[in-house]
Amino acid sequence: MTKPINGFSKLSKSEKIDWLAENYLKNNENAVSILKQYWNEDDKLQKLHDEFIENTVSNFYLPLGLAPNFLINGKYYVIPMAIEESSVVAAASKAAKFWSERGGFKASVINQKKIGQVHFLFSGDFSKLQRLFKIIEPKLREAVKPITRNMEKRGGGILSIDLINKTQDLENYYQLFAKFDTRDSMGANFINSCLEKFAEVLQEEASKFEEFSAKEKELQIIMSILSNYVPECIVRAEVSCPVAELSEDKNMTGEQFTEKFIQAVRIAEIEPYRAVTHNKGAMNGIDAVVLATGNDFRAVEAGIHAYASRNGSYSSLTHASVEDGIFKFWMEIPLALGTVGGLTSLHPLVKLALDILQKPSASELMEITAVAGLAQNFAALRSLTTTGIQQGHMKMHLMNILNQHKASEIEKKEMVEYFTHHTITHSSVIEQLEKMRS
Ligand code: MEV
């Protein structure tokens, strides 16, 4: 059995790979060369990537695709998307084109507040704790001035700090619940630094508050951390057009399409099994933009799914209606994104992605990202309720199957031509490839 290793992080990159190969890859030369094959020739660029995280041994590529023709609030965008799933960028582009011919997408940020909490235990009289909080609130704000000064210059900062009594849910449990405006930054470091300072001041002030008994003075900080649940950082994206303009298919009227489409949305509103997949389709668009623009997709995912369950049952993020012959399809989601700080100024491709989007503010990026999610969900529902999803999916997947079977460029060209007139399944592709090769 392989022994654990001490001081792994201190080894050089090559030493780490040698250790890995020796202990876990049976000294497989090919595995080692795969890892090294993805190193960037430009040492400076590689060093940048090495230093993003600990124990980097290689780079992990994802395709960066472009979805053009997104008309959002009257302005055209090309949306960069980092994603591995074959049909996503194609679907986004198709939906963008479709809606650009019908007035485009409207998007707006409803609010943009971020949240952080100091979680602590206090065993004693709540009214005394309230009095302490009232006295120290200005001190909390004063203590974080060195952290908030720059943010305040940019128009942001701390919006509110509240004391919350959670003892009904958990014995002795209280919070400082703070709201922040972090302007164009995602603000995680800013918020967490403020919270840790709040915690320090709270504990110190409690320890010398005259009204407190000795036990009450032992107020215990459990942790201080931002929340990735941001129900007051909401963006709305919407499309609408006359029902009659919705169908491009001669076999289906706009009314027939709308009826089925709205039923599909209703199903996702009431049926969690479907809602998860429905929302996953929207996340295909959202995550791809979040990743390409160097934002934290895990935070976005966690926050959005919590929001989708806010009424007690997991439900659809998108909604649809028809009123006076006008079809409307919309989504409201929480999105805490940044366009300054973090990876945005470090990763060359992230910087480029933001340039492609014409250097958006955080609120513009929220709008663009929500639109990508809405477009993706529209494209998925349109396929699902008309042709079925596999037609488009397999068309994009064809190249993956051909690559898996090491098809040459000539073979690929012939196969693509053949399958424009035949149904693509995994076995039909292999069968045809074998036929061609024999
Ligand atoms: C696949 O990545 C996404 C879909 O399953 C979404 C949906 O079912 O709505 C097609």
Automatic annotation (TrEMBL):
The keyword Oxidoreductase applies. The keyword NAD applies. Pathway: Metabolic intermediate metabolism; (R)-mevalonate degradation; (S)-3-hydroxy-3-methylglutaryl-CoA from (R)-mevalonate: step 1/1. Keywords: NAD, Oxidoreductase. Its EC number is 1.1.1.88. It is an enzyme of class 1 (oxidoreductase). GO terms for molecular function: hydroxymethylglutaryl-CoA reductase (NADH) activity; hydroxymethylglutaryl-CoA reductase (NADPH) activity. It catalyses: (R)-mevalonate + 2 NAD(+) + CoA = (3S)-3-hydroxy-3-methylglutaryl-CoA + 2 NADH + 2 H(+). PROSITE patterns: HMG_COA_REDUCTASE_4. GO terms for biological process: coenzyme A metabolic process. InterPro entries: HMG_CoA_Rdtase (IPR002202), HMG_CoA_Rdtase_bac-typ (IPR004553), HMG_CoA_Rdtase_cat_sf (IPR023074), HMG_CoA_Rdtase_NAD(P)-bd_sf (IPR009023), HMG_CoA_Rdtase_sub-bd_dom_sf (IPR009029). CDD domains: HMG-CoA_reductase_classII. Belongs to the HMG-CoA reductase family. This is 3-hydroxy-3-methylglutaryl coenzyme A reductase. It comes from Christiangramia sediminis.
